[in-house]
Amino acid sequence: MRVVMAEDLHLLREGMVALLTAHGFEVAAAVESGPELLQALLEERPDIAVVDVRLPPTFTDEGLQAALEARRRIPGLPVLVLSQHVEQLYARELLADGTGGVGYLLKDRVFNAEQFVDAVRRVAEGGTAMDPDVIAKLLASNARDEPLGRLTPREREVLELMAEGRSNAAIGQRLYLSESAVGKHTANIFGKLDLAPSDDDNRRVLAVLAYLQGTRRA
Amino acid sequence: MKAIGRAFALVALAALGLGTSLLAVLGFGLGFGLGIIILVPMTIRLIRANARMQRRFALAWSGVEIADPYRPAPPPPVRHRDGFYHEGRQRYRSPRVPAWNQRFNWLIRDPATWRDYAFVLLDGLAVVVPVLLFLMNPWAALAGIALIAYFAPRLVRAHGRAAHALLAPTRKAALELQVNRLARTRAETMDHQTAELHRIERDLHDGAQARLVAVGMTIGAAEQLVETDPTAAKALLAKAREASATALADLRSLVRGIHPPVLAERGLGDAVRALALDSPLITHVTVELPERPDAPVESAAYFAISELLTNAARHGGATEAWIDISHAGRAMRVTVTDDGLGGADPAKGTGLAGLERRLAAFDGVLAISSPPGGPTIVTIELPQVLSPLPPVLPKHAHLIGWFMGLCWIPMIPQGFVAMAFKLSHMEQKSWFLALYLPEPFQWPVIGAMIATGLSMFTVALVLAIKQWRGDKCA
Q1: B277 to A144: CB separation less than 8 angstroms, yes or no
Q2: CB-CB under 8 Å, A111 with B241
Q3: Which segments of B136-266 does DSSP mark as H helices, in order?
Q4: Which residue, A151, A185, A146, A48, is CA-closest to A103?
Q5: Is B320 on the interface with A (CB under 8 A)?
Q6: What are the residue boundaries of the structural domains of chain B, listed by start?
Q7: Rounded to a whole number, what is the distance in Å from the CA of B268 to chain A's nearest CA?
Q8: DSSP string spanning B372-415?
Q9: pLDDT tens across B142-159, in order?
Q10: If one looks up domain B187-258 in CATH, what number appears?
C-alpha cells in the first residue's frame, strides 16, 4: 500500500516512515508543509494519506485543510488525520461527506504500533478510525439523549468500539465475546437507537457516527 | 449633491443646537438662579446629547473621529461600616442623596461640559444668524442657498474641524482619562497573570513533570531487568508507555487552559463552536465578525464564554444555551443566554467579578440580566478591538438634509407669510409666487406650498427617526 505522509517534526516523521515501512507499506512521499502535501496527494494518488493537522507555513490547520481539499478533488481518497488534540468540530468536518475512508487519531496512538497500523489499514480500505477521545466527547455531548440512556453497559461498550470504526470481529476480540454475541448486541443497539440495520461493518459505523453527531437523516 | 444635502443638514443641526442652547440658558437660569437645582443635570444631559450628535456627524461626514471627552462617572457610594453613606461630614441613610451630589459635581466640574455648551451655542449662532440675515430679502435668501450649495464641501469640512477643536477631549483630559484607566487595569492584569503563571507552574509540577520522572524511573528499572528477567522488563516498559501517554494527556489539558489549539488554528468563531459541541448543553452559536481580532482579545473572549457556559451548566441548571458574537463598529459584542434558573449575581460569587476584572484589561464591560427563574443573559462588550470600519451613518442623510434645509421655503414665506399677506390684503407681493397668480389659483397654490413644506419636513423627520432606530438596533 502506498502512503503519503505529512508531518513537520523531523523525528516523528522518520519514526513513522520506519514504522510503516516495517509493516509493509510503501511511503511514496513524506512532506512537511501544507502546499507540498496537496501537491504530493494530487501527483501520487496514494492508497492513504497520513496527515498532521498543524503544519507550516501558517501552523494553523493547514494539514486538515489540505486533506479536505484533496478529498474534494479525489473523492473517497482515504485520509488519516493525526493531531496533538482531538476536536469534535474537526471530526465532523472529516465525516461530513458521509463516504468513510477517514481516520482521526491522537498522535499518542502511534505509541501502540499494532493498533496504529491496524487503523491505517482500516482507513485505506475505506473504513473509519476515530479516536476513543472523540467518541467519549461525542457521547458526553449526547448525555441527555434518551435512546442512548436505554443501552446496557455492555451495549454501550460495543457502541463505543463500533463508533471508533472497528468491525464486529475486532470488537469481539477486544471484549472477549464471540462474533455472534457481538452481532446480537449490535442488533439490539440499532433497534434501541431506531437505526436501519446493515450487514456491512463500514456502513454500520457511519450510521452510528451520524447518530451521535445528530446529523442522522430520517 | 451629497455635500449640499449634508451642508443643509448641518444647518438644521446648528439650529437645533441653538434651540437647545437657549433652552439651556433657561435651564441654568432657573437651576442656579432660582435654585431649581434639579434642572441642571437635565440641561447638561440635553447639551451632551446634542454634542454627541455633532460628533457622530463629524465622524461620518468629515472623517474626524472625536472621542468622548467626559470624565468617568463616579462609582456608586459605598455603605460605611456604621451603616450610613458618608459624604464629607454628612451621613445619609440612603445612597440617593450622596449619589446625586456626586453626579452633580461630576457633571458641573467637568470642563468638557462647558466646552460642549460653547460649541453648541457658537455653532448655532454662527450658522443661524447669517441664515436669518439672508432671509430678510428674497434675493439674499436665494443667494444664500446658492452660497451654501457652492461652498457645501468646504462647509462640511469646516464643521468637522470646528467640532474637533471644541468637542474633542483636551490633551490633558484625554491623558487624565487614560492614565486612570491604565493604572487600574495594569494592576489587575498583573495580578491575573501572576496567578495564571502560578497555576501553570503548579499543574506542570504535579502533573506532567512528576509523570515523566516516573517514566524515567520505570525505564531505568526495565533496563536493569532486561537481561535477567525479560518478561518483567517488558511489563515495566508497557507501564512506562502508559505513563508517558498520561503525561501527554496532562499536557494536553494544560495547553487547552493556556491557549486552546482550535483557537490558534481557526480563530474565535470555530473555537466557540468546538466549545459548544463539547458542552453538555444544547448550544446554538452565531458568529458575525468581519475579521479575526487580535490574539489576546480572542483569548479573553474565548475564556469568558467558556466560563459562562460552564456556569450555566453547573449552577444555572440550564439545558440550552445561545452564544452570539457580533460586532458594532469597532466593538465586539458577545451575548451568552441560557434557560437556567437565573439569579446570577457578580456580588455573590467571585467568578463573574473575576471575569469582569479580566475583561477590564481590554476596557471591556460585562452586563448581566439574571432574574430569579431565568433566563440569564450575559453581555460582554469589548470596545475598540476591531479595525475601524467606514462609518455607516445616515443612509438618506443628504436627502434628509435637502428636505430639512429647504422645507421652510414653501412652508413659511411662500405659504404662511403669503397667506398672511393675502388675509391682510397687503399690496406688496414681494417674492411670493402665489400672489402673482390670477385670483382663483392663489389659495390652492398657498395650500399646496404649505402642504409641500410640511410633507418635506415629515419625510425628513420619519427618515431621521428610522435611521436613528436602526442605529440603535445595530
Answers
A1: no
A2: yes
A3: 138-167, 171-204, 210-228, 230-258, 261-266
A4: A48
A5: no
A6: 2-71+110-169, 187-258, 266-382, 407-473
A7: 13
A8: TT--EEEEEEETT-SPPPPP---TTHHHHHHHHHHTHHHHIIII
A9: 887 788 778 878 888 888
A10: 1.20.5
Beta strands B331-338 and B365-369 are unpaired
C-alpha cell at A62: 493547514
Please count the other Cβ atoms lying within 10 Å of the Cβ belonging to residue B379: 15
Q: Could A144 and B319 be called an inter-chain contact, meaning their C-beta atoms sit closer than 8 Å?
A: yes
Nearest by CB to B252, which of A53, A60, A84? A84
Q: What domains can you pick out in chain A, each with its CATH number?
A: 2-131 (3.40.50.2300), 142-213 (1.10.10.10)
* Topology, domain B266-382: Heat Shock Protein 90 (3.30.565)
Contact yes or no for A108 and B248 at CB 8 A: yes
Q: pTM here?
A: 0.65
Compute the nearest-CA separation of A61 from chain B (Å): 5
Backbone angles phi, psi at B169, to 5 degrees: -65, 140
CA distance B262 to chain A (A): 8
pLDDT of residue B114: 84
Give the pLDDT band of residue B78 (cuts 50, 70, 90).
Answer: confident
Cβ of B279 and A141 within 8 Å?
Answer: yes
Say yes or no: B319 contacts chain A, CB-CB below 8 A.
yes
Answer yes or no: is pLDDT of B375 > 80. Answer: yes
The C-alpha atoms of residue B170 and residue B234 are separated, in whole angstroms, by 76
Contact assignment for A88 to B245 by CB distance below 8 Å: no
Q: Which residue of B has its CA nearest to A58?
A: B265
DSSP labels for B117-145?
HHHHHHHHHHHHHHHHHHHTSHHHHHHHH
Of B352, B267, B356, B270, which is closest to residue B311 (Cα–Cα)? B352
Contacts of A85 in chain B (CB under 8 A): 252, 255-256, 261-262
Residues B266, A61: C-beta atoms closer than 8 Å? yes
Put the strands of the sheet holding B331-338 in their side by side order: B282-287, B320-328, B331-338, B376-382, B365-369
**The pLDDT value given to residue B394:** 55
> Using one digit for the tens of pLDDT, what is the confidence trace for B46-58?
888 888 888 888 8
Across the interface, whether the CB atoms of A60 and B278 are under 8 A apart is answered no
Using the predicted structure, report yes or no on whether residue B140 has a pLDDT greater than 80: no
CB B262 within 8 A of CB B274: yes
